[in-house]
Amino acid sequence: MPIPSALIGDHISAQSYHSPSSIPHGILDFLRSDSLVEGPANIILPHLLKTIEKERHNDPLPRDQLWIVCQRHGVLDFVLSCTEGPMGPYPVFIFASAPFSQLLDFDYTRPAVAALVHELLGAGVSRERVFSIFAPEPVTEIFAAIWSQVAGVRLARSPKYYAATFTYCTAKSFINKTMTVLDGFSVSLRAAVDRDVPVIAELCQAFSETSPPFLLTFERALEEARMLVKDGQVWVHEIRHESGEPDIASIVAFTRVSTNVAAITKVYTNPRWRQRGCALRLVRRVTKHLLKTKQAVVLYVSHGNPAARVYDQAGYVGLRGNAERFPGVDRWLELGFDTDVVELGHW
């Protein structure tokens, strides 16, 4: 079903780019103009910068890369990505330049999202490829309604895959406290090395079981763990009781890194080591490490997740029911489409 042009309006334009280097430099400059923009753009920007580098060095690119830039009266409004990473296709991601309060205006957001959907279909993206959409909450809801109608694919039976708050930590907000260790225990907080891969894989697989439908077999988790260690994107909290063998209690991964911002993308603690402060200790250490070279560290925390208290204690802002005090601390939502029709990816 085509989208009526009247729904989009002549003041909104959308342009597709299959080659990352063809995206206008002005768009890239805006996305990394400061950490308040680059933070929410982190869902798109790091992969985009990586593919630009690959293209520059004539390295093979993942297949089926697509970015759509939407402008209103010539000013950047939204950027949509439909791309593929080393573990498979990503969801459709959408970055919005407008503040969240403006995105709540249906008459403002719907025409631009309609333009994105129109361009997505025009670029030949199949309905099987769009397995989920992740964006600021009102953008996701509007995209899902329009896509379901025009692509003829309904939402999944339990469509709410991920409902989360976007938050960030800066050098100013970071809380650097030394934590005591229980008597008889010693800890080591460090970058992971090759010998850690099997245990990291176990924890990656267990993490995936908390994030249906994106489940990993142990073989796929092993592939992910090897990649994280090779790329230097995962730290471990090693713990030892007296003279016993060391064990990895927690992992923290940070797989999306751009010019001024890094994102913590995975935090998981082995259940047998919980309630000992391991996650907070490691999140603080990794955040401190990343802030040496970045203006901000960002992450998403699902609504109602007790981990929000951990992030709050490390200095991530807006998690005390005070999100309105911090620009950009907003609600994001991932909705999934009918799993009998789509082909699931991974992120």
Automatic annotation (TrEMBL):
Residues 187-347 form the N-acetyltransferase domain. The lineage of its organism: Eukaryota, Fungi, Dikarya, Basidiomycota, Agaricomycotina. GO terms for molecular function: acyltransferase activity, transferring groups other than amino-acyl groups. It comes from the Eukaryota. This is N-acetyltransferase domain-containing protein. InterPro entries: Acyl_CoA_acyltransferase, GCN5-like_dom, GNAT_dom.
